[in-house]
Amino acid sequence: MLFHFDLKEFQEKVTTQLRPWQRSFQFWVRAADIYTGYKVFQVRASLEKDVQKQEVMWEKQHEVAADKIYSMCSELGGFFLKVAQIVGKPDLAPAAWVKRLVTLCDQAPATPYDVIRAVLEKELGQSIDELFEYFDKDPLGSASIAQVHRARLKGDKNDVVVKVQHPGVQELMMTDIRNLQAFALYIQKTDVKFDLFSITKEMEKQISYEFDFVREAEAMARIRRFLCQNNRKSPVRVPRLIRDMVSRRVLVMEYIDGIPILKLGDEMAKRGIHPDGKLAAAAKQNILKNLSLAYGQMILKSGFFHADPHPGNILICKGSEVALLDYGQVKDLPDELRLGYAKLILAIADNDPLKASESYRELGIETLSKCENELKELLRLAETMFDTKLPPGVTMLQPFAEESSIKKVAVKAFPEELFSVLRTVHLLRGLSVGLGINFSCAEQWRPIAEEVLYVAGRLPAKDLKQVHRRGTSRRTFWR
């Protein structure tokens, strides 16, 4: 009996098995380089007594690190594109990081058309020519998990978007997140007194859901239905699902015409609209107000919400209408956490440190404080984590600076399920800073929080009437 040895097949198997190891090695080499670069620089900066010179030194260090982080995220792709979305926010990261990372929203390498075609035809059981009048071979965009193509169904007049998953992406992304978990565990033991590991565990759970497009389709339909039922007109547009064209790795939905929110300034300039004029300001306020209202309703009233409002998932349509795309990351909050968060929103809106402290306990957030005026710092920490408003005179939050609340109040335990709320609020804050509007989601969401607490029997009717009178007065949320 002759033994047949297929060298090409053997090489492919070895390559597939080695990829996670190679990827892990690449991550740790780069992460260690960035981390040690900052630790060494900290010592150098501490020797410089001139504050202005020290600031210039820090800016240069951030630029060096930004190039390294950009290279790591763009070259490794996959999960690290999501890391770039989280880290590269105008209110959180150094300006040099934001400038480099903000362009990585939808820049994953595209999978070749022949491979996409094979996945699509296998999943839907028919050929592309049988299903579509035309199918654009060049993708509209390629992200970490999937890429999208514009197409038109046979016998239809309207265009659709076809979302197709990159083959083999799930295993690599799970490798990435486990490496990040180990790094987070190290960082929280050495530098940042915050429960980062729980956050990465929640990310692992959420991202594992994103590989199932049937689940995403159900989430999209559910949120679309909820927003339509709770408003005369939905504050945001949610794509309509094309029924019978959904599988685990393929999802077909209506095409919504619009421009990415990051290109809003360019579009205004093209139309001759002054970026600082009244028309531009009104459009930006309308965009943020509607987007934030949709999130307030989803999180507080339903508990089931779109948990990924990064700029790549937001389109601006005619009349400054907002479209919210990509329902791979959704969260279903348990009622106890939903109501506990509603209570915390009232505490922030009322500037009530005692109520904030009670809300921490109710939510299961455990803190350890060694500072004076602990209640005041707990409220400041709540504002940093769960509100979009920046303090007077502050254009960018630096949560890990020496004077920040996170340095004064250690967060020993943070419920994993609250991370999606935390991340969503921080992304909304990033958008508000990017639009040049200092805005408090806690103040805007206050009437919604009151309503849900009243319905749940957690807010007396007498308080509801008083609060509603205040809530419906002519106060402005836009500063």
TrEMBL record:
InterPro entries: ABC1_dom, Kinase-like_dom_sf, Mito_struct-func_regulator, Prot_kinase_dom. SUPFAM superfamilies: Protein kinase-like (PK-like). It comes from the Eukaryota. One of its GO terms (molecular function) is ATP binding. Residues 134-479 form the Protein kinase domain. This is Protein kinase domain-containing protein. It comes from Anisodus acutangulus.
